[in-house]
Specification:
Length: 333
């Protein structure tokens, strides 16, 4: 009798990156268990005939039960909010979820883990694109989300060193593309710009990458990544002005020309946050977002290209697919 195939668990499988990873694994014919929250939007998984388990990753017992029989793990889930009424909640959530998942993986003897971190844990490099050598401390990054990812990544690194956790770390840059159901903060920029509601911009920059290329990078990390190493999974660097110009070209709108200073926007961001506290909705413009925008967040994927065989398509292709999907979902009119 032949042995059953390895069982792969994906946490955060209903999310933007998690769903892309799950779909890439399903296309390879992997035996999958997808872990989702009870309140997750199911649209990204509707056509995947795989096992699904509902669990809150902050519940160690539930995580342990979901991990039973798992041989390979992709821990993609995270509290991905750039703002919350209680910013410390983001840090508590990402610390607890990562700790519970990694301890459960050790308990059942998972063979190999890909942990999804973020370029948020890397310091921008004023001299050019940053790489994996520019690891940040918690006190060096702006905002609760970035701090939470630093805390979680350092926790994983300690468990690799102290407990033999068989984990490879991947650091996606700024994924864009189809199936961004929430949408993510960058997806919200695309929706607003494609709808003609971003006539101006600040001087900032991002590294934009197709979400499916990020997913392919995860699978490559599982197969070829070195335990304890981190790999930037990025695409192309672009200023915010260039990104908005590309969106305008795709949608046939006028390219934004007005560059705004940050200082006058700070009071508006503060007002947005106060309104959000009353309404419960996440603000589009935040104080931390403006502080982060001071940096051009450009990154190099040279290590992943060299060691994993990683490749990324031009970001304009991802914008086209994202805009088409948002239109189909009724988010752009």
């Amino acid at each position: 009798m032949s042995a059953r195939p390895d069982l792969v668990l994906v946490t955060g499988a209903a999310g933007f990156v998690g769903a892309a990873v799950a779909r890439a694994l399903a296309a390879e014919g992997r035996r999958l268990r997808l872990l989702v929250r009870a309140t997750s939007d199911p649209r990204n998984l509707a056509d995947l005939p795989v096992e699904r388990v509902e669990a809150d990753l902050r519940d160690a017992g539930a995580v342990g039960r979901a991990m039973a029989g798992v041989t390979h793990l992709f821990h993609v889930a995270a509290d991905y909010r750039l703002w919350a009424p209680d910013p410390e909640e983001i840090i508590r959530n990402n610390r607890a979820m990562t700790a519970n998942v990694m301890r459960a993986a050790l308990d059942v003897g998972v063979k190999r883990i890909v942990y999804t971190s973020s370029v948020a844990t890397l310091l921008p490099d004023p001299a050019g694109p940053a790489d994996e050598t520019r690891a940040a401390t918690e006190g060096e990054v702006v905002g609760a989300y970035k701090r939470s990812k630093v805390v979680a990544e350092r926790l994983v690194e300690r468990m690799i060193a102290d407990d033999g956790l068989p984990a490879v770390i991947v650091n996606p840059s700024t994924p864009i593309g189809p199936r961004d159901v929430k949408p993510t903060p960058t997806g919200r920029i695309i929706v607003e710009a494609a709808g003609g509601r971003m006539p101006a911009f600040v001087d900032s920059g991002l590294n934009l990458v197709h979400v499916d290329d990020v997913a392919a990078g995860h699978l490559a990390a599982l197969q070829r990544g070195r335990i304890g190493e981190r790999y930037v999974l990025g695409g192309q660097d672009a200023s915010l002005k260039e990104m908005l110009g590309a969106i305008a070209a795709i949608t046939g709108r006028r390219t934004p020309k007005l560059a705004l200073p940050r200082a006058p926007l700070m009071p508006l961001a503060w007002l947005n946050e106060q309104r959000a506290r009353l309404t419960g909705s996440e603000p589009f413009l935040t104080l931390d977002g403006l502080r982060m925008s001071r940096h051009h967040m450009f990154y190099s994927s040279a290590k992943a290209i060299r060691e994993l065989g990683y490749r990324a398509r031009p970001y304009r292709e991802a914008l086209v697919e994202a805009i088409d999907w948002f239109r189909g979902a009724g988010m752009i009119r």
